[in-house]
Amino acid sequence: MMAATPALNPEDVQRAAAALHTPDIDGWANRFELLSDGNRLRLLLCLHHAPDICVGDLAAALDMTGTAVSHALRLLRNQGWVSATRDGRSMRYRLTDDTVHELLHTIGATHYHNHTGAEEER
Q1: Which residues form the HTH arsR-type domain (predicted)?
Q2: DSSP strand pairing (53-54 vs 82-87)
Q3: Short-list 64, 48, 25, CA closest to 96
């Protein structure tokens, strides 16, 4: 077992170590892991811009297979970022996590504007 590096300034060590008491570090690491995949990030951007879209339309927009989109959606649903509602025989998906919504805005995501110029609710 390796010995810990001796502290040059114990007060700096205490201040730095206090940051590790931030709530839910593992949860944030998981969020960043999900966001680190380009296809999932593109999928989230599509859901942000076009809520209530079905898997087939997402697959066409992303130039991915429906199976790949469904797999990514399953991961995002398990995390609670995306929800689905049944529309006849298909499912429609939307972004539901407010933190992810704000993160997408931070990287420049926009909302769809219809022809009258009114912004969608989300």
Answers
A1: 20-115
A2: unpaired
A3: 48
The pTM score is: 0.76
Structure tokens at 100: 């992810």
Domain that holds residue 79: 32-107
DSSP state of 106: H
Classify residue 42: in a domain, yes or no. Answer: yes
The enclosing domain of 50 has a CATH number of 1.10.10.10
Task: Answer whether residue 45 is part of any domain.
Answer: yes
How many domains does the structure of the chain reveal?
Answer: 1
Q: Which two tokens stand for residue 87?
A: 């529309």
User: Within a domain: residue 48?
Assistant: yes
Please spell the DSSP secondary structure of 9-67, one letter per residue: -HHHHHHHHHGGG-TTHHHHHHHHHHHTSHHHHHHHHHHHHS-SEEHHHHHHHHT--HH
